[in-house]
Write a structure and sequence with these properties.
The protein is an all-alpha fold and about 250 residues long. About 80% of the residues lie in helices and about 0% in strands. The longest helix has about 40 residues. The protein is globular, with a radius of gyration of 20 Å.
């Protein structure tokens, strides 16, 4: 889909291969698998910060490497391990309290908001030729690695174990089904589209909060539009073809 960003499916496959031993270990030791997954994610974050600090010129190659992007994946696997263990019922009982549930939601919102703000400030400093010192940049890379994954985990945990109320009903609505079918296509195409937009722009970016927000909305709309085109012209016809062959 995108030659310059083909590392996306490559990273996904490498992460899947890394997790196979941990999934096998889970069959024999739930605690061992959970600890192994947590340690893998922690090592990934430490490695990202260390390489950013000591090898700043290798930024692009470090950023696109699977070993520095696996931390959020580990959070997802860790959540899966927990939900298939004896801890599920204990977590469910704790999350009965509305204060604990809303604590998860607010913590998630804080982590993600902090990530957006810091990403904006980091990019602004970079493009205004006033980059952050290496120590701050290194710490930001570590925060970036765990904030999004942990934020999603805290947000999803209450309603995955059976709580959630209104938020669960909203997320369970069939309204989201069309978008759900387009998310992977948007994931594959958004990098290419953003790079194309930035490299062909004839105007300098202002780097104001409003400008940053408008870019997020515009990039999202364009990525899902491209994903819709790919779904209608490639994915859906192949699904129909596969279904017709199976019926025969």
């Amino acid at each position: 889909v995108s030659a310059s960003f083909s590392r996306v499916p490559a990273c996904d496959m490498q992460m899947f291969i890394v997790m196979l031993p941990l999934i096998t270990l889970f069959m024999y030791s739930q605690l061992g698998a959970a600890l192994g997954t947590a340690v893998s994610g922690a090592l990934s974050m430490i490695l990202m910060g260390t390489l950013t600090y000591y090898h700043p010129l290798s930024g692009p190659s470090v950023y696109t490497a699977a070993y520095t992007k696996i931390a959020p994946y580990c959070y997802g696997m860790l959540l899966g391990f927990v939900l298939h263990s004896s801890l599920r019922e204990k977590i469910k009982r704790v999350l009965v309290m509305w204060s604990v549930r809303w604590g998860c939601y607010l913590s998630s919102a804080g982590l993600m908001y902090g990530l957006v703000v810091l990403s904006f400030e980091s990019s602004k400093a970079k493009y205004q030729l006033d980059p952050w010192p290496l120590s701050r940049k290194s710490l930001f890379q570590v925060y970036e690695e765990f904030a999004w994954g942990l934020g999603l985990l805290l947000f999803l945990l209450p309603w995955i174990v059976g709580h959630g109320g209104m938020i669960k009903r909203i997320l369970a609505s069939h309204v989201w089904t069309p978008l759900a079918r387009l998310t992977f296509g948007a994931h594959l195409t958004h990098c290419m589209l953003i790079a194309l937009w930035y490299s062909t722009s004839m105007h300098l970016f202002e780097w104001t909060p409003w400008d940053f927000l408008s870019k997020i909305v515009t990039n999202t709309v364009i990525a899902f539009t491209a994903a819709t085109f790919l779904y209608l012209t490639v994915e859906k016809p192949l699904i129909n073809l596969e279904g017709s062959k199976q019926r025969r």
